[in-house]
Amino acid sequence: MVLPKDFALAVVASSSPDLSVQEKFELYIEAFEFIQTKSAKEKPAQTKNDPIKTVRDLKKMGL
């Protein structure tokens, strides 16, 4: 899982050095919000695939 803060910092670090501080800040906010939204959408999809893992975990517990 990608941490939003780390992703946003990487995006800003790889951006053009010609951007102003204001533009870099806006880019940071946009990247942060983008990865948060993407992560939130992927999270339910991951839990839908977890029944197999849940069954395995229950078997390990002897249930």
UniProtKB/TrEMBL annotation:
<protein>
    <submittedName>
        <fullName>Uncharacterized protein</fullName>
    </submittedName>
</protein>
